[in-house]
Amino acid sequence: MAKITLDNLAHSYLPNPASEDDFALKELNHDWRDGEAYALLGASGCGKSTLLNIISGLLEPSQGRILFDDVDVTHAPTAERNIAQVFQFPVVYDTMSVRDNLAFPLRNRGAEPDYVARRVQEIAQMIGMEAELDRKARGLTADAKQKISLGRGMVREDVNALLFDEPLTVIDPHMKWELRTQLKALHNEFGHTMIYVTHDQTEALTFADKVVVMYDGRVVQIGTPQELFERPAHTFVGYFIGSPGMNVMDAEIAGDVARVGGAEVPLAAGYAPPAGRVQIGVRPEFVRLTTGGAGLPARVTRIEDVGRHKIVRLMAGDVELSAIAPEGAAIAADADRVTFDPAGVNVYADDWRVVPDGEAA
């Protein structure tokens, strides 16, 4: 297990990058704590796999350093970093049995046969392949082979970090939930530093202690699922986390009031006048429908019943909004206003969250 430090780290695939836009991974300075589980979350092309490959040693950064427990490993080959990596598509030895595939990393390091046998049995049980231990990998399904890859990545207990690059892509949907649960159990039992790349917010939020949200080659927020939900540091975080994502509206801010399209929206705290393009962000859970009176004029365009709750789609002027209503709640036919829970309203300037007066930055 290791603390991982990203020191002034950046990478461009161009030989002579001339501007920040030329960097696939923009400058990062972060410490990732020893023994925590992190998920790198973002859309395709945001830099997740580039960062993971730099950590593993498959890619050398254009600038900066990477350190394991304060030891510089920037130029160290993968074999010297003592990490295990599981890729998006299965990497197995087809001519070997499932048992020998799982045992290979341990035997390669000279582990005692009794320990190898015990550890292989534990991992086979974890990935649900005890009955296939003596079968050749050739002929198994793609998701079975990926389970072998996962097992081989998890079989060693002495690694500095376990790295997973979208490992459940080819796994049957039912098995995905089970394997995520097992990965979490493995982390709780052994305390490995784990980094899990995904574009799936459910995978990230159920797996990780901390989610690292990336956008356009930059880490825009690192936080717990609750922090990402309640205080998105960037409008992209609000959009990407949650279903539906956060509502964003242009606004003017005056102290503890936002003005949106002529209507006043109360805020839970005061703000100094923000510079740049100013917006408010409100998650659908904090939107309330009313009829008449105060609030932002809006009209209901459709209602989607998803079982656990209803998603109400609205238009407020030319802005599309979403609200979430409890299952069984009646939606008034004449509802023509929306109000927001002040505690659920965040203020943004040029897409970055503005810290209200009195809150620690």
TrEMBL record:
* Domain called ABC transporter: residue spans: 4-241
Cross-referenced Gene3D superfamilies, in alphabetical order?
Answer: 2.40.50.100, Nucleic acid-binding proteins, P-loop containing nucleotide triphosphate hydrolases
The record, for PROSITE patterns, names:
ABC_TRANSPORTER_2 (PS50893)
* GO MF terms held by the record: ABC-type ferric iron transporter activity; ATP binding; ATP hydrolysis activity
| SUPFAM superfamilies assigned | MOP-like, P-loop containing nucleoside triphosphate hydrolases
Which superkingdom, per the lineage?
Bacteria
Kindly state which keywords UniProt assigns to this record, in alphabetical order: ATP-binding, Cell membrane, Hydrolase, Membrane, Nucleotide-binding, Transport
Hydrolase among keywords? yes
Enzyme Commission designation: 3.6.3.20
Name the InterPro entries on file: AAA+_ATPase, ABC_transporter-like_ATP-bd, ABC_transpr_FbpC, ABC_transpr_MalK/UgpC-like, Mo/tungstate-bd_C_term_dom, NA-bd_OB-fold, OB_MalK-like, P-loop_NTPase
List GO terms (cellular component aspect).
ATP-binding cassette (ABC) transporter complex, substrate-binding subunit-containing
Regarding protein family, the annotation reads: Belongs to the ABC transporter superfamily.
Protein name (Swiss-Prot/TrEMBL): UgpC_4 protein
Q: What is the lineage of its organism?
A: Bacteria, Pseudomonadati, Pseudomonadota, Alphaproteobacteria, Rhodobacterales
